[in-house]
Amino acid sequence: MSNVKKMSVEIWSDIMCPFCYIGKKKFEQALSQFESKDEVEIIWKSFQLSPDLVTDTKINIDEYLATHKGISIEQAQQMNAQVSQMAKQVGLEYHLDKSVVANSFDAHRFSHYALSMGKQDAAEEKLYQAYFTEGKNMDDKNTLMDIGTEIGLDANEIEKILDSEMYCDAVIEDIKEAEAIDVQGVPFFVFDRKYAVSGAQDSAVFLNTLQQTLKEKQNAPIS
What are the percentages of helix, strand and coil residues in the chain, rounded to 5? Predict the structure, then answer.
């Protein structure tokens, strides 16, 4: 058994970011081709595109985007159609017409709990799927409890966490760290604290970065 520490890939993302889910799929495509994929540890980091957003189930994503970006409804619809087409190219099915405008803070807290239980990657996949494909309210406690149950987490424990302040500090710490390393947008991938890839890049970019990071790790002197 190797004593070499696993390569870390930290991914700053937001559940309501359509490019983050696309980026996740492109990264996974690269990882599937990476010869040392079992030596990679993936850690999802919290980021909020709209931290002050108040959950509003009465408006649709086109109306929110139009107001938020200062554009027309037609322009918002066009933007969402384009991103849905991008998602389709990596095998994702977006139903943005069903997406619920919701603050993602509690979803990030849920993700941190999933990390503590060794199920964060599964949690992130389910969160994205619930938001972009199934039109679930990500600021709803029952939604997060259901997702947790699906991946083998305890619903009562999730309820207890969401009814408390648990993992609030962890989310805030991730966001502060993103500011400190000058993350301008998400997804933002950091490889072993050496290389960064910003955005939903082509899978070849991720694969090259994985290979370069591994090469340097293998050649690094043992301390």
Answer: 55, 10, 35
* Alpha carbon distance 80, 84 (integer Å): 6
Q: What is the mean pLDDT of the chain?
A: 96
DSSP 132: I
Q: Are 42 and 32 in contact (CB under 8 A)?
A: no
Q: What is the pLDDT of residue 48?
A: 98
Q: Is residue 52 part of a domain?
A: yes
- 47-100: per-residue pLDDT in tens? 999 999 999 999 999 999 999 999 999 999 999 999 999 999 999 999 999 999
Residue 82: closest CA among 179, 176, 168, 200: 200
- Which domain does 70 fall in, by range? 7-211
Task: Decide if 130 contacts 138 (C-beta within 8 A).
Answer: yes
Strand segments, DSSP code E, in 71-221 are: 188-191, 195-198
CA atoms of 196 and 192, how far apart (whole Å): 9
Sheet holding 188-191, edge to edge: 40-46, 7-13, 188-191, 195-198
For the chain, give the percent of residues with pLDDT over 90. 95
- pTM for this prediction: 0.95
- How many residues would you count in the chain? 223
Domain count of the fold of the chain = 1
- pLDDT at position 1: 37
Q: Is residue 220 part of a domain?
A: no
Whether residue 222 lies inside any domain: the answer is no
